[in-house]
Each structure stands twice: as structure tokens, then as C-alpha cells.
Amino acid sequence: MKSTQATxxxxxxxLRSVSLLRDLPxxxxxxxxxxxxxxxxxxxxxxxxxxxxxxxxxIIAKGEVCVTQTTxxxxxxxxxxxxxxxxxxxxxxxxxxDVRSANIISTENDTQCLVVDRDNFNQxxxxxxxxxxxxxxxxxxxxxxxxxxxxx
Length: 152
Ligand code: WNU
Hints:
This protein is an alpha+beta fold. It has a single domain (37-151), classed as Jelly Rolls. It has helices spanning 5-17, 26-34, 91-96, 118-126, 129-151; strands at residues 37-41, 46-48, 56-62, 65-69, 78-83, 88-89, 103-106, 111-117. A four-stranded antiparallel beta sheet has the order 1-8-3-6. A four-stranded antiparallel beta sheet has the order 2-7-4-5, with no helix packed on it. Strand 4 and strand 5 form a beta hairpin. It is globular and about 50 Å long. It starts with a helix and ends with a helix. Ligand WNU binds next to strand 5, strand 6, helix 3 and helix 5.
């Protein structure tokens, strides 16, 4: 990300406020800021589509998104949850080496996401064992939730 120093510092302190990244070493966080992209989405726009390949991890900097998923016995994808500022998504396809497992749809105009690509995500997570273990466990829990949802 090319930006002014003031903006860089804003993103740095924002990322520090994201629970997942709270304990990340200073230089790691600074590196993430360096390679961030920012994407903007309008209300109703798909950020992630279930079944597609994906190579990016997202952190919500502004706005709100809704998570929906195909569910057995339902014609329409079902709403699972909503996520807001400081929440993140898209880690599952990266960690499970799989296609996207749910839809992510912006529910507001001008939703802003900080986007980290696979290489930088691996650098961020891969070299930090606790983060890796935490996310792996979370992703396994999501798979169990998916199964449970489809049994009913
Ligand atoms: C869920 N099932 C599935 C969420 C975000 C981060 C964490 C929960 Cl650590 P992806 C689709 C994304 C997926 C997840 C997100 O949707 N997601 C879920 C579920 O119950 N995915 N399969 N809840 S919100 C969420 C925990 O990030 O990653 O790359 O794309 O498959």
C-alpha cells in the first residue's frame, strides 16, 4: 500500500485493535500495513462467493457484512451471521486449501476491507505459532458448525 505516513499510522493502530493481531510483533504488523490493499464495496455486493477459489484474507475497517451459506433442504443460501468493524473473514480457504465455504455480502454502502493476499497471510500467520494454532482450531470449529447446520 502506497500512502502517506499519517494513513500508515492509522492502519497500524487500527490493526493493533483487531483482537487477532493484538500480540503480533511490531515489525510484523508494520509489514502487513506495507502490503495492504483497501477494497470498497456497495450494499448488496458480493465480497466472497461460496465455491470460488480465493487467495485473500479480509479485515473490516468500515461497515458491515453478512455471511450466508447453501444449506441442505433450503433453496436460498441461509444467513449465518453478520460481521462488523474489526472482524475478519476469508481465512478458511487459505488455511484449508479449499474453495470459499460461504458467501460474504456487504450490507452497507462504502464497506471498506483491508485485504491481505495469501503470501502475506502466510507470512503473518505461518511464523507466529499461536496465531496459526488459534486460526486452525477456529477453522475446524467452522467446519463442525457447517456440518451441524446441514444435519437439521
Ligand atoms: C461458518 N462457516 C464457514 C464465518 C470469520 C472468521 C472466523 C468466523 Cl475466524 P472462506 C467464507 C468465509 C470463511 C469464514 C467465514 O466465511 N465464516 C464461515 C462461517 O459458520 N465460514 N464455512 N462463519 S464468519 C467468521 C470465524 O471466514 O472463510 O475463505 O470464505 O471459506
